[in-house]
């Protein structure tokens, strides 16, 4: 399954919203009723960290300004108000067949 | 608090075998339904999942790497290991180990190691 993110580069003014799109080459809907799509961020000099799992579930400790949505082959990560600490590369990942990541979206502060 | 720590040689010669270990603390690696993964980050290509081990020895590998990868577990040391054979420069990356739960308890790869850099060069 190929994962395609857009945009690949996302400059954002602090306090403004941001949105990242992720498309899969086939539906990520499992027979269990869940779509296997996660979001991760890799901040400068850090390991990747989990943001969202199974489309819309925030990981422990993730601020509620992060939200995930979507179904089938189209998914979105939204940040309601970007803060300086959100700088990093954001990846979507499918877990339906093996695991594959999108190319990554680099978020930077204007 | 669960912590993962990767270790291994930072330099591997082309055609040789890369061997890394992930030491787990704060939880038993033998707990059923926990999946222990290896993921790597290429400087130019982003993240690539390599494979995982679960239920103290069952494994599943990313198909493009399947012929070169093995993952083993040492429950006495609470650690698991990655072996990647016939390496080339394309295997130069930062290697991470990570944990997730399986099945209905799936909650993403919620714990990651700090990563270890491996360079393939003669």
Structure overview:
The complex is a heterodimer of chains A (110) and B (122). Chain A is mainly beta. Chain A has strands spanning 3-6, 9-12, 18-24, 37-42, 48-53, 57-58, 66-71, 74-79, 88-94, 100-101, 105-109. In chain A, the strands form 2 sheets. In chain A, strands 2, 4, 5, 6, 9, 10 and 11 form a 7-stranded mixed beta sheet that branches. The model of chain A has no long low-confidence stretch (mean pLDDT 97). With 122 residues, chain B is mostly beta strands. Chain B contains no helices and 11 strands. In chain B, the strands form 2 sheets. In chain B, strands 2, 4, 5, 6, 9, 10 and 11 form a 7-stranded mixed beta sheet that branches. Chain B is globular, with a radius of gyration of 14 Å. The mean pLDDT of chain B is 95. The A-B interface holds A 32, 34, 36, 38, 40, 42, 47-50, 52-54, 57, 59-60, 89, 91, 93, 95, 98-104 and B 37, 39, 41, 46-49, 60, 62-63, 96, 98, 104, 106-110, 112-115.
What fraction of the residues of chain A are assigned to beta strands by DSSP? Answer: over 45%
Low-pLDDT parts of chain A are none
Number of DSSP strands of chain B?
A: 11
Radius of gyration of chain A: 13 Å
Secondary-structure-based class of chain B equals mainly beta
Shape of chain A: globular
Number of strands of chain A: 11
Distance between the termini of chain A: 33 Å
Oligomeric status: heterodimer
- The SSE string of chain A, one letter per element, is EEEEEEEEEEE
Mean pLDDT of chain B: 95
Task: Report the span from N to C terminus of chain B.
Answer: 39 Å
Largest sheet of chain B: 7 strands, mixed
Main β sheet profile of chain A: 7 strands, mixed
The proportion of residues forming helix of chain A, as a percent range, comes to: under 10%
* Relative strand content of chain B: over 45%
Shape of chain B: globular
Largest interface: A-B, 27 and 22 residues
Number of alpha- plus pi-helical segments of chain A: 0
Mean pLDDT of chain A: 97
Taking all Cα atoms into account, the compactness measure Rg of chain B is: 14 Å
């Amino acid at each position: 399954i190929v994962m395609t993110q857009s945009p690949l580069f996302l400059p954002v003014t602090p306090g403004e919203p941001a949105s990242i799109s992720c498309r899969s080459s086939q539906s990520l809907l499992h027979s269990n009723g869940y779509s296997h799509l996660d979001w991760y961020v890799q901040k400068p000099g850090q390991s990747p960290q989990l943001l969202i799992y199974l489309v819309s579930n925030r990981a422990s400790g993730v601020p509620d300004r992060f939200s995930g949505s979507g179904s089938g082959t189209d998914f979105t990560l939204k940040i309601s108000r970007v803060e300086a600490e959100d700088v990093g590369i954001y990846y979507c990942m499918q877990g339906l067949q093996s695991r594959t990541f999108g190319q990554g979206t680099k978020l930077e502060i204007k | 608090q669960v912590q993962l720590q990767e270790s291994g040689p930072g330099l591997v010669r082309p055609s040789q075998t890369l061997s890394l270990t992930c030491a787990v603390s704060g939880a038993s690696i033998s707990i059923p339904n926990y999946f222990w993964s290896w993921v790597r980050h290429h400087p130019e290509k982003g993240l690539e999942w390599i494979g995982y081990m679960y239920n103290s020895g069952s494994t599943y590998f990313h198909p493009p790497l399947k012929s070169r990868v093995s993952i083993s577990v040492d429950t006495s040391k609470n650690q698991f290991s990655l072996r990647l054979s016939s390496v080339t420069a394309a295997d130069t990356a930062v290697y991470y180990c990570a944990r997730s739960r399986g099945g209905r308890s799936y909650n993403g790869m919620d714990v990651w190691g700090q990563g270890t850099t491996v360079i393939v060069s003669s």
